[in-house]
Amino acid sequence: MRTREAHPISILYSTTGPYAALGREALAGALAAIAEVNADGALPFRLEPRIDDPAGRAEFYPLRTEAAIRNHGCRHVIGTITSWSRKDVLPAIERNGALLWYAFPYEGYEASDSAIYLGACPNQHLLPLFDHVLPRFGNRPFIVGSNYIWGWENSRIARELTEASGGQVLSERFVPLGAVEVDHLITEIEQKRPDFILSNLVGASATAFFAAYDLWRRNRPAAPPIVGCNLSETELDSLTPEARAGHIAAAPYFNRLDIPENREFKARMAARYGAERRITTSFCATYMSVTILAQAMKDAATDAPDAILRVVTSRSFDTPMGPVAIHPRTHHAALRPHLAVSDTSGDFDIFHSAAEPVEADPYLVHAFHRPKQGDGDSHLQRQGSHLKVVK
Fold it and tell me: Are the C-beta atoms of 269 and 279 separated by less than 8 Å?
């Protein structure tokens, strides 16, 4: 029997701590992909996961990354969820010549030669979302977010989009990452009466906010909707059926995405885990990270990061989201944005999809305008700048 070379890879997700549910889904997706890779006898290698749980603590991320690379020979790190954790590990990644595979939506304004960005950035999530909600619900949003980079920057861009439409952000409020004390937010929403609420909350904070908001809206049939760019099946899972329903999200993947690639993917996962296993956005994104890495390793005949980068940025890859290509300069994925509304099961029904994948514009160098009458999907058309991109 042929001996297959083993390649260690680091899997770095917080499966305990303030956003543990996201971390558990991310880890499950990565391990599902590794199991498929290792079961494929046609591949001349197998992957050995080095699993670390930083527990959502800032000081553990760079330490675990450094140890995985130096002590265990990992050249690739599949991991991090929050932007502060990504920024904390990148120096160690860059210093040691490794490659970070980042699969979560983020606020943009970053590009590293040592990272592959497979999560959506603002022109692939926030801009399409606001293209939809501003003309339909109004331009007086209430913004709430976790008190770190994602919340701050997404709020800033949302404010500029709102003001460019002639509107006004009624409030911007931030809570500590993982905090579940949210009653004061509901009180202010009652007072301000916004047209919609943009949630940039993460993990347990998001779940607590949705639960409290549902209690408030039950006797208010005209309650404004909650919308978000990082809202997924995971945050809704532990809520009551009523609390799960009616929220609008933008993302490149939802469990109910009805394309051949996703149907085939879900069938394989159902065969492995059972038909009741719902595929979350976090699960799919990390699965995709590992499978793209494995395909690139096969093509390059090595796991050397420089060689992997050359392959990854030179071709497209089949994924459950559809074909995905990585830009050779920014290392960001071109992704197809979808808009969806949640139902009582905690799943999302997609009601709008971009006609094709949208190239990432992480620094918002190009500007997009909201659809005008007769434009159709013209939020993808480029027009003069209306965003302040100087930081």
Answer: yes
